[in-house]
Design brief:
Blueprint (H helix, E strand, L loop, with lengths): L1 E6 L3 H12 L4 E5 L25 H14 L4 E3 L2 E5 L5 E5 L3 E9 L3 E3 L15 E2 L2 H4 L7 E5 L3 H11 L4 E5 L9 H8 L4 E4 L2 E7 L13 E6 L5 E5 L2 E4 L3 E3 L29 E3 L11 H22 L1
Parallel strand pairs: 1-2, 1-6, 2-3, 6-17, 8-15, 9-10, 9-15, 10-11
Antiparallel strand pairs: 4-5, 5-6, 7-16, 12-13, 13-14
Helix pairs in contact: 1-2, 1-6, 4-5
The structure holds NADP nicotinamide-adenine-dinucleotide phosphate (NAP).
The site of NADP nicotinamide-adenine-dinucleotide phosphate has 20 residues, from helix 4.
Length: 311
């Protein structure tokens, strides 16, 4: 029986592991991946984590893991398939084992949201991608389109513009949501073309002249102001239309908001005593690495308080 099981090894889970080991709590971190579910490691460059300007997501994730391991944190690489959180003993059932603890920290994070247009599923991996840093290298000197107007879309477009001959950015409004510094950087690039107030309505494997090539060849682009639809020839489609919380494995037990985020304030306390939420899976104002690590630290402090009271 552990003091705390931490589900997820992204920044929130890593910070929780560091704080838990320093607090001498017996703890494990369970994740199917080495460093979280990909949001951090898929980021080419992070420029707003204090003290480490310009670090790559991969390097930051590795550093966090090394830090936690150096302090003695124990990581289990396994897929969580089910949780039983309502009783005094919190059970986490993975593919290989069952783990029990007095408390649990849910730091399972979030993943990319689907666009939901025809061709998206069909051509996923054949021209449709959700990760520019993973797949961008396939599009050297090619034409790509990025869909979205948030930090991820703009970062992806900047990254792709280094290698692609042309990058279209399709955004449904005439103003980007991304941080101003990213916007300025994007809009200064000569090979980036903005498609404002527009939407991709279909992803196709045939060129505008009708030839089918079995992978992405074009998208249908709709001007949302005029309603006009026209084909846009592209080699790759990068979808960055936001994130969706990875809360399904606790969903029927904890209170959630309508977006599926676990309801918890900065103490991490959820609707079940002894269960805490940290990072992107929690309803909160700002989803950043710096707020995720703060959540991890806060959640461990709440765990300590809970264990003291339970004695
Ligand atoms: P986001 O900030 O929620 O932006 C999603 C974008 O996609 C928005 O521009 C949105 O348009 C658009 N969108 C949503 N649904 C759409 C649809 N069905 N069709 C077309 N467009 C759609 O998501 P994100 O960029 O993935 O970022 C996720 C979180 O991580 C955010 O909190 C972000 O701040 C954070 N993050 C931070 C950094 C950083 O600080 N460097 C880097 C990466 C991520 P509207 O603008 O019209 O809503």
């Amino acid at each position: 029986m552990y003091d705390v099981i931490i589900i997820g090894s992204g920044p929130a889970g890593m910070a929780a592991a560091i704080y838990a080991t320093r607090a001498k709590l017996s703890s494990i971190v369970i994740d199917q991946n080495y460093v979280g579910g990909g949001q951090v490691v898929d980021t080419y460059e992070i420029d707003n984590y204090p003290g480490l300007p310009g670090i790559s997501g991969m390097d930051l994730g590795d550093k966090m893991r090394e830090h936690a391991e150096k302090l003695g944190a124990q990581f289990i690489t396994d897929l969580v398939v089910r949780t039983e959180l309502t009783g005094p003993v919190k059970k986490v059932i993975t593919e290989k084992n069952t783990y029990e603890a007095k408390t649990a920290i849910i730091a399972s994070g979030a993943t990319h949201r689907k666009l939901g247009v025809p061709g998206e599923e069909e051509f996923s991996g054949r021209g449709v991608s959700y990760c520019a840093t993973c797949d961008g290298a396939f599009y050297r000197n090619k034409v790509t389109v990025v869909i979205g107007g948030g930090d991820v879309a703009v970062e992806d477009a900047i990254f792709l513009a280094r290698a692609c001959s042309k990058v279209y950015v399709v955004h449904r409004r005439d103003e980007l949501r991304a941080a101003k510094v990213l916007q300025d950087n994007l809009l200064s690039l000569p090979n980036v073309e903005m498609c404002w107030s527009s939407a991709v309505t279909e992803i196709l494997d045939h060129t505008p002249d009708g030839e089918s090539i079995g992978k992405v060849a074009s998208v249908m682009l709709k001007d949302l102001k005029t309603g006009d639809v026209k084909p846009l020839p592209v080699d790759g489609v990068f979808i960055a239309v936001g994130i969706t919380p990875l809360s399904a494995l606790v969903g029927d037990q904890l209170e959630m908001n309508e977006g599926g985020y676990i309801i918890a304030d900065e103490t991490g306390e959820t609707s079940i005593p002894g269960v805490f939420a940290a990072g992107d899976v929690r309803n909160k104002q700002l989803r950043q690495i710096v707020t995720a690590v703060a959540d991890g630290a806060n959640a461990v402090t709440s765990v300590e308080r809970y264990l003291l009271q339970a004695k």
